[in-house]
Each structure stands twice: as structure tokens, then as C-alpha cells.
């Protein structure tokens, strides 16, 4: 009999975001692997089309309001999900520490099942200085049977939060490589649409927020252009820092060498990545913003055969194998970034070799099916009651 699992996911599509996407892709890949799963997710007015396309049931519950109310609703939804599955799961999956963690504790009492906790970029260590949140987090951390980290960085954060080392595992994140295939003419059309022509392109495809480091690339551009005069920096995406970035472009006299595309539709992302010679995103710590837990954008670029330049920060060193699939520089180091970027743009053969290695690494280690296999392997470690229907024997 197949294993059964219940995912508790306050963050789930059609909402947009990194955790929403991670949960959706992991749950889908685990289902493809033959596990019977159900997801308990937040009620959203436009969720029917998402749910109908999924190969597993989604129980929607109202979670807006207090964390306590959200946790209680998710917990109640788990009981309904168990009925949908025809019996208790092997375990519950808390897709982040709150409100899913308390929900998993409460649901685990009536289902008599343990729970695992997934961590991303440090969100589980942010309690805003609130005593009650710190106490609840401590209880969640103490009760979890296993901790699933998306990178070595996140695993270290789990350990700093007092998770037992023998319960911490790294499952990474994944990409769907098939999403990044392009049709003939797609890349040329993208380049022509944005006036890029045959220039050498460095690309950042990300939300325009401070931690992504767009301004560092702009400050590196004058030096890059001295080495590679036909280089152009394509900033794809939108967000709150667009106006300051546009002002910086004017201040540095870079109007002829920087292109703002605005938000790139999902169906155009592959062409955007394939249009570049080099992906660059020098993420850095910014107060109030979460660290890059892994950096899926680097792996999306890799799926398109593109090398990346990133920083030695957060989980990025897991996404970029330094010297093998791209290069790493220190945070806020415009000079170091300029040297790394100019060196690769001026050496197309080396850049191509790094890009080919990046794609091979993604296809071997970072597909969602590989992530799901690691996840299931860890879940099978959990001891469950003898009547755990659907559990591995």
C-alpha cells in the first residue's frame, strides 16, 4: 500500500512566492513518486483552477487573521484530509514553522502521527522579538521528528535554533528543466523586443528588492564596459527598488547599457534566460529581508545552460559550484563582481563550459523528482505506530 502524507501549507498557489512554489512542486513530485498525499491550504477565491489540475486533493481552510486561528483551521483541515486519503498518514509535513508547526502538533494528537518541518532561508528563526513566538517556536522545534533543509545554510540555521543534528537533513530545491526549453526564434525575438541585438548580455531575473544586489551590478558596470564595451545589463522583473535603480543608471551614465524589461511572464522566462550570456545576482544581507535560502534562479539559469555569478551568502554556494558552474564573490564587492563578470564575458569558451557543467549538474541533482526522492528517503526514517496505514513497513 502506498505511503500517505498530509502537507500543511498556509502558503500555496495561486498565491505567488518562493515558499508557495516550493510546496507546490515538492508535493507534486512526491505524488508522482507514488505517494498518496493531500494538502491542507489557505482558502483563496481563485484556487479552483489550481486545485482541479493537481493529482491530489486540496482541502482549503480559512487562515486569514491570527496565527492561532490559522493553526487551528489547518489542524481541523488535516482531519478532513485524512478522510480524503482513507486513513491516517505516515506523518504530517509542516511546510514552515508557523502557523503550520503548531497545526501539525495539534493534528498529530488526534491522528497520532509525527510531523516533519521544512526550512528555507531563515524564516523559522525570525520571531520579531516576541516572547510568545519564541516560546511557540521552541515547542515546534522540540516536537518535530525531522527537519528538512533546502541548503547547508538552512541546515545550519536549524542547528542554531537547537534542532538535534541527527534529525536535520538537506533535501535541496529543484527545477523543472522542461519549463526552460525554447522554440526556434524565441531568443532572437526577446533580444529584438528589448533592443539587445547581438550584444553580450548579463541578466538578473528577480524581484527588484534590495537584497538581490542590482545596485552592485550597476556600480560594477563601468569597469565591465571598459573590458567588454558591448556588454548590456538586462534587469528583468519589477519591484519597489525600480525607481532608485533607474536613478542610479542615470547617475552612472549607463542608459545605453542597461535594459529594464519589467515583469517577465512565465511563458517568456525561458527565452529571457536563454538570451543571456551570464546570469548575475549578487544577493546580500538586508535588515528585515530573508536570506537567499538556496537561490532557485541560479539553477533555473543553469537549466538553460548558463553560468552564474553570485555571492558567498546564504544558500547560494549550494546553488553555484564555484569554479565549476559559475563564480562566487563577496557581498557588496563591486570591484570583485566586475572582475568576475568581465572575465567570463571576455572568455566565451570558458563561460560555455561552465554553463554546460551547470546544466548537467541540475539535471543530475536538482530536478524536483530528485528532491522528492531525497524527501521520501528521509520520511521513511521516521518511526510510526504499528497501525500507520500506508506507512513503509
Put simply, the count of helices is 15
Give a short account of the largest sheet: 7 strands, parallel
Give the terminus-to-terminus CA distance.
10 Å
Number of strands: 13
Give the SSE string: EHEHEHEHEHEHEHEHEHEHEHEHEHHH
**Helix percentage:** 40-55%
Q: pLDDT average, as an integer?
A: 93
Oligomerization = single chain
Give me the Rg, rounded: 22 Å
Strand order of the biggest β-sheet: 3-2-1-4-5-6-7
Inertia-based shape: elongated
Alpha-beta classification = alpha/beta
Give unreliable regions as ranges.
388-393
Residue share in β-strands = 15-25%
Describe the fold and architecture.
With 393 residues, the protein is α/β, with parallel strands linked by helices. Helix content is 42%, strand content 16%. The chain has 15 helices and 13 strands. The strands form two sheets. A seven-stranded parallel β-sheet has the order 3-2-1-4-5-6-7, with helices on both faces. The chain has a six-stranded parallel β-sheet with strand order 10-9-8-11-12-13, with helices on both faces. Strand 1, helix 1 (18-32) and strand 2 form a beta-alpha-beta unit.
Amino acid at each position: 500500500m502506498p505511503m500517505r502524507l498530509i502537507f500543511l501549507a498556509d502558503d500555496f498557489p495561486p498565491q505567488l512566492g518562493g515558499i508557495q512554489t516550493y510546496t507546490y512542486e515538492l508535493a507534486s513530485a512526491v505524488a508522482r513518486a507514488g505517494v498518496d498525499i493531500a494538502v491542507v491550504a489557505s482558502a483563496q477565491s481563485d484556487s479552483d483552477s489550481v486545485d482541479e489540475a493537481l493529482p491530489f486533493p486540496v482541502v482549503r481552510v480559512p487562515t486569514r487573521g491570527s496565527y492561532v486561528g490559522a493553526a487551528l483551521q489547518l489542524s481541523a483541515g488535516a482531519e478532513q484530509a485524512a478522510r480524503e486519503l482513507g486513513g491516517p498518514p505516515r506523518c504530517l509535513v509542516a511546510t514552515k514553522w508557523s502557523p503550520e508547526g503548531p497545526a501539525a502538533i495539534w493534528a498529530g494528537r488526534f491522528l497520532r502521527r509525527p510531523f516533519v518541518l521544512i526550512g528555507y532561508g531563515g524564516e523559522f528563526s525570525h520571531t520579531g522579538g516576541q516572547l510568545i513566538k519564541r516560546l511557540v517556536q521552541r515547542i515546534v522545534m522540540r516536537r518535530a521528528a525531522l527537519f528538512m533543509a533546502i541548503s547547508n545554510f538552512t541546515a545550519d540555521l536549524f542547528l542554531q535554533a537547537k534542532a538535534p543534528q541527527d534529525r536535520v537533513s538537506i533535501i535541496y530545491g529543484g527545477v523543472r528543466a522542461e519549463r526552460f526549453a525554447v522554440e526556434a526564434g524565441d531568443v532572437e525575438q526577446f533580444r529584438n523586443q528589448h533592443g539587445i541585438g547581438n550584444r553580450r548580455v548579463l541578466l538578473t531575473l528577480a524581484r527588484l528588492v534590495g537584497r538581490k544586489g542590482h545596485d552592485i551590478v550597476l556600480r560594477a558596470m563601468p569597469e565591465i564596459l571598459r573590458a567588454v564595451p558591448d556588454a548590456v545589463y538586462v534587469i528583468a522583473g519589477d519591484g519597489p527598488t525600480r525607481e532608485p535603480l533607474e536613478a542610479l543608471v542615470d547617475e552612472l551614465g549607463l542608459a545605453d547599457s542597461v535594459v529594464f524589461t519589467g515583469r517577465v511572464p512565465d511563458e517568456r522566462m525561458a527565452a529571457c534566460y536563454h538570451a543571456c550570456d551570464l546570469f548575475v545576482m549578487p544577493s546580500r544581507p538586508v535588515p528585515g529581508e530573508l536570506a537567499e535560502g538556496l537561490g532557485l534562479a541560479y539553477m533555473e539559469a543553469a537549466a538553460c545552460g548558463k553560468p552564474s555569478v553570485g555571492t558567498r551568502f546564504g544558500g547560494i554556494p549550494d546553488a553555484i559550484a564555484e569554479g565549476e558552474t559559475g563564480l562566487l564573490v563577496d557581498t557588496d564587492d563591486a570591484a570583485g563582481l566586475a572582475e568576475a563578470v568581465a572575465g567570463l564575458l571576455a572568455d566565451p569558451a570558458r563561460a560555455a563550459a561552465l554553463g554546460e557543467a551547470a546544466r548537467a549538474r541540475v539535471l543530475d541533482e536538482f530536478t524536483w523528482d530528485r528532491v522528492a526522492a531525497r524527501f521520501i528517503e528521509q520520511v521513511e526514517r521516521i518511526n510510526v505506530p504499528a497501525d500507520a496505514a500506508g506507512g513503509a513497513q
